[in-house]
Amino acid sequence: MSKQLPFDLATIQSIAKKWPTPFYLYDETGIRQTARQMRGAFDWTDFRNYFAVKATPNPHLLRILIEEGMGADCSSGAELEISRRVGLSGEDIMFTSNNTMAKDYQFARELGAIINLDDINYIDYLNENVGVPELVCCRFNPGEMKAGNVIIGNPVEAKFGFTRQQLLDGYKKLQQLGVKEFGLHTMVASNELSVDFHLETAGLLFDIAAELHSDLGITLKFVNLGGGVGVPYEPGQTAFAWEDFGTRLGQLYQQKIVERGVPEFQVVMENGRCVTGPHGYLVTQVTHRKQTYRDYVGVDATMANLMRPGMYGSYHHISAIGNDSSDGSPVDVVGSLCENNDKFAIQRPMPDVQAGDYLAIHDAGAHGHSMGFQYNGKLRSAELLLRPDGEVVEIRRAETLDDYFGTLNFDPVLETVAT
């Protein structure tokens, strides 16, 4: 079974005349539809998603998501800055980081962002260096109380968050320091499509919320269920059932919070991958065919453009644009890096594509361009946006050799050469 594309061959051929491959192409219509589907699943509460900026840190995409009611989830100073530049401030920003420097906390405080602490020791660190704000969130690591999913691993082995006892001690200390509003957060999944898994996480946090209220008298302002909702990367996989999740989450909230007399709070999440991931495509052109012990399709994109398949063995569907044939022999689709793991697909049946044909690598709209690198002097590609009216606009230009060499100082070398 194939995946559908929001563009055709003629469109790509036209785009490639102005912006040579490889390039990223994002579908604005799809992004907005996903954002609205997510929000519509929570009609029982004032739900909000804080988009994980690390997934696709582009101001044009962030503005689209802001228009759809999202905030920004940031984990670094640069992500705070890009959020500031697109007009966000205050509680529109969630700052969730680890091993954090005081300068980043200071920047977050200047923006009025919600600070989400990763470590009980950071309570004193924050207080001593920049002061503790009136609203603080803490990240809970459930340890053996909750299994992580396949990708994120065992919470006991994760570097993130407070233990349960640290959480109780930490909130008590924050109370003593004058904190007046509190949030609660966890993140135990990555690319998880199971509704039940996310509901189990929510139930755990709701129980902690009740415990904080009964033991410490804390009324939470919000509970952040984390992100980690997955993308159906492989054909035939079922997309996350937002409507089912929203309905069942509402029932769980009623049982564990409302009926137990726990003060109500806002429910938020911090999804990034599932928002933009399915609506971004790495478009690349076939450059060579090679036959040795295997058949190879060489393309002008490399692992430097999309590292997930090479680094994680992740599956990304690949369409031969304009060729809907399901027939074909197994090939490895490869780039030109001096690394054998520079492969987008391994022994995957593909139509008989030839040099000059265009391929679209699906579901590359999150953790794609943002994880790019410059090994072998490969330059990061352009990012383009397909607007609902069919217009294509450049939202990030491709790097040049001047960009690549821009941080080097050639002058002493040139002086030596001249002598």
Notable characteristics:
single chain, 419 residues, alpha/beta, TIM Barrel, Lyase, Ornithine Decarboxylase, Chain A, domain 1, 2 domains, eight-stranded parallel barrel, 21% strand
Give a summary of the structure in a few sentences.
With 419 residues, this protein is of the alpha/beta class. It is built from 13 helices and 17 strands.
Q: How many helix segments? A: 13
- What is the 3D shape? globular
Task: Determine and state the CATH class of the largest domain.
Answer: Alpha Beta
The CATH topology of the largest domain, please? TIM Barrel
Q: What is the succession of H and E elements?
A: HEHEHEHEHEHEHEHEHEHEEHEEEEEEHH
Approximate strand percentage: 15-25%
CATH architecture of the largest domain: Alpha-Beta Barrel
Largest sheet, strands/sense/barrel:
9 strands, mixed
Q: Structurally, how many domains make up the residues?
A: 2
Q: Give the radius of gyration.
A: 23 Å
Provide the CATH superfamily of the largest domain: Alanine racemase
How far apart lie the N and C ends?
Answer: 64 Å
Spans where pLDDT lies below 50 across 5 or more residues? none
Number of strands: 17
Provide the residue-averaged pLDDT: 93
How would you classify the quaternary structure? Answer: single chain
Class derived from helix and strand content? alpha/beta
The amount of helix comes to: 25-40%
